[in-house]
Structures are given as C-alpha cells and as structure tokens.
C-alpha cells in the first residue's frame, strides 16, 4: 500500500473505516448504536458513502414500508457518467417516496398507446442504507434477501440490476435487534458505534465539498490486494479452530454457519492490505472474528444448555449463564485457541 493511502486511513472515522472494510471484502454490513443515535448514525453513513467514497446512495426507512415501496426507493437514475463526473459525487437518491409511484389502471402506458411508453432504465443504487429493517414485515425482508442473493430486483415495469460492488447497509433499530435468520446470515460484518465517538460528517467537522478520500480505482485495488493476500496453512488452521471452538462452546446455541466461515476468511484477507500487509497474521483473524460473529451468535439459555442432557443442575446452569454476552463468548473462544507462532 502506498504511504499516502496509509496516511488517509489513519485519519478516517470508525464508520468510514467500517464502510471501507465492507467494500474491500465485498461484504454487506449491519450498524448498531443506542436507539437515540440511530438517526444521526443513518445520516453519518449517508454522508460517508457520498462524500468519502463518492457512491450514489439511497436511504429508506423500512419500518412501515411495503414491498413495492421498498423496490422503488432503492432505484436511482441510470447515469453512466456518475462514476466519472466529480460534480456528481455528492449526488444522492431522493429520500422521499413518491406519493403515487404507479400510474392508475385508467392511465397505464399500455392503454395510452405506444407513444407514451418509456423504457425504465433505472438501476439499483451503489449503496442502500436501510434503517429499521429489523422492524419490517417478512415480505420486505424476503425481498431484501433476494436482492442480496441475486443483485437484481423486479418492479411492476422492469428488472433492475445492481453494480458488482453493490453494498447493502442496515441501521438497526436497537443494539440487540435481529433480522430473520437467512437474511442475517447474508451480512458479513457488524459494527457498534458508540455515540460518544461522534458523527464528524453530521457535525460538520469534515470538509463537505472535499474530493472523496477513496476513489473507485483505489477500492478496486484494495479488493485485488485482498484477493491476493496469503493465508498460510498454520493461520488457516487457526481460523478453522476458532470456528470449531465457537460451534462447540457451551454458551452458543447457533449462528455459526458455513456462510459465516466464508465471510470470516474474506474479511481477514481484506484487513491485510488495510494494514499494509500481503499476508494474514493471526491478529487479523481475531480482529475479523470480532466483526463477523457478534450479529450471528445465538446464545444458549438455561432451558437449552446442552449439558442438561447429561444431568447438570438447572439452577447451576442458570447461574453460570447469568450476565454472559456475545462479546464474552467470542473473547473466551479466542483465548481458548492456541495462536500459531
């Protein structure tokens, strides 16, 4: 990595860095904060994507949206010149939903004649920031799942596609919010933002009209370097052992999926070029574990703890589990696995 890029990495906020890791690893991300800071977190991420990375962004509140409204809100004009036009780098999709996005049956283009038919060539925004997706109905979450799986979406008039580096960001409604199981498993990274860490874009401590700190070419270069980062047999075994220990932990009921293991490997390799390395040391594996698993791990309860099957005292099990958090479990697992020299 060149020294200039390394210097810029030292000056970005934690949210900018989380977005950069997501883009480099090609993984979608969930952001958490205290409930009172959710709006500022959404606005900060919005400004980060547009001002720091120059990406066209759509923002949608999913708490009361329908499938049709969701599909319409994530679309932007198919402006081919956006990527190469600096004056458009701050452009964002209008956050307000149209009051009547679909024409009435009496005035549909098909009934008005071919002269009024226009091609709907809109595309999915580079970045979608979905707030309160955990509060959305199951149909909306299924639509989001299909979008992440296929990178395309169908409206009533056309099929719309996303770019190869498409990023889906969720701002959860509260720190312990959960998406549906399969949708949650599509997100490779999670990040908790402390309100006291501030929101530099929202608070105006960053130059609003500055050139984006990271160009698309730089992000592509980081992505290529991440793909080429070396993972030795010893470090690969270390990564595998952490996954095994996580699955076997008596505190864990579930969430340690095969998809999570793939995400762990991708994030660990993505962290290498961001630290100026062309290989993955054990320390980056442990850092990746702390980003990949917090939103996935499902803690066991006093009723489902596995040693009850062999006669453990329920009262003792309940006392053992009291106060145990996901972060505690992750730290306990990392400490249990021998680190390669």
Automatic annotation (TrEMBL):
Its EC number is 6.6.1.1. Residues 246-306 form the ChlI/MoxR AAA lid domain. Pathway: Porphyrin-containing compound metabolism. It comes from the Eukaryota. GO terms for molecular function: magnesium chelatase activity. Transmembrane segments: none annotated. This is magnesium chelatase. It is an enzyme of class 6 (ligase). Residues 85-115 are annotated as: Disordered. Pfam families: AAA_lid_2.
